[in-house]
Amino acid sequence: MAATEGHIQSAGKIPARHLMVIIGALLVEVAFSITLTGLSFFTPAVLGDFPGTRAGAFMIHFTLYGFASAASMPVAGMLIDRIKAPGLLVLGGLIAAGGLVVFSAAQSLWWFYAAGIVIGIGVGLSLQYVPIVVINRWFVAKRGTVLGIVLAGTGVGGVILGVVVPILLRTVGWRTSMVIMAVAMVVLTTGPALFLLRSNPEDLGLRPYGAEVAPADEVTTKTGNEPGMTQREAFGSIWFYVLAASLLLLGAIYGMTQHFVNYLSGKPWGVELRPEEISTIIITATICLIVFKPFLGWFIDKIGLERALWIVLLIAAGATAAWAYMTTLLPYVFFVIFIFLGTASGTVAPPLIAEHSFGQKEFSKIWGTLGMAYPIGLSIGAAVWGWVKDYFGSYGYGFVSVPVFTLLVLLGVSATFRGARKLWVPEAQQLA
């Protein structure tokens, strides 16, 4: 039985060197929050300096950032075994920091667009890719839990930035504040690369945590005999495309979260929510996202990946449909908690799904391409949800349709587990 099905024996205390890897990956995710959450704080100040610029036109830089980061991930997959994870992290971190400097010096919209592309390339080469691959190589037991803890770093970073950035904007202005963000980017990527992270535990004479008690189909080694599919074999299988479509659809579903403030501000059911009530709902969602990422990883390790996905995503889908009929603060807060349980799954689950489907043999290369699906889905979904509002006059029709689309995602993932694993699991059993 596979590790992602919740049946690995206890591997004991996590060694100190493995803990250093967790800390390093967590710091990289904090750096990731600079481009995820941090940039959003600059929008009002930038628009104030460019009074003739519409918000929609300015925000194109963030769309370009998203697509550039996704497009550069396959390049990261090709480079990681050549220049190693630390080298890739330094390279991408410096590129992202350079993009932030370009942003700070912007004199027109085109500067912001160029900055978005450069930042995205750097992020896709490093922050969005390296932590996931490194954790996958260093951990077999508790992989879901560790990955959840690491990915919660973006939420922790978002909270820190929510306090620090407004103070910086008031005291030194947005241009200098952005340069400070660039310096932080360099520190939080170069530091872990130099002192904490390594591509493989075998580089230090160690083994992945839990490898000695794991089934053969879950263990990464450097012998060349890792079980799983090659990149070419995965790309030649229909199941790669079924899974890519499923993850893209999952991202499109949770693109709705970018519209929550707009929905709540639009007097749903004719009921006006005060700004502080809307803030309470969004803060609750943010806190839940931080807590739920490690919880979801633990839950996956405890009961198994497939079972956990069905439970979590169906609960989140039901809560989303119910949200369409809420009219007061407490029900909104109650249901948003369960909605963001599903949102957390969008970052924690996809790499675990990919590894379970196609194995460890060339996971880093496969994930370099497959990892694009969810973020591209988010970008597409943000636009689609806007169209739903424009066409139907309300987000409500979209909310009540979420259970149907969630079911399609789950069926696609489950079918991939069964179809893809039949192509390579016998190899793992022979190695056991």
UniProtKB/TrEMBL annotation:
InterPro entries: MFS (IPR011701), MFS_dom (IPR020846), MFS_trans_sf (IPR036259), Proton-linked_MCT (IPR050327). It is a multi-pass membrane protein. The keyword Protease does not apply. The keyword Transferase does not apply. It is found in: Cell membrane. The chain crosses the membrane at residues 19-42, 62-80, 87-106, 112-134, 146-168, 174-197, 238-257, 277-296, 308-326, 332-354, 366-388, 394-413. GO terms for cellular component: plasma membrane. Residues 17-421 form the Major facilitator superfamily (MFS) profile domain. This is MFS transporter. Its main location: membrane. GO terms for molecular function: transmembrane transporter activity. Keywords: Membrane, Transmembrane, Transmembrane helix.
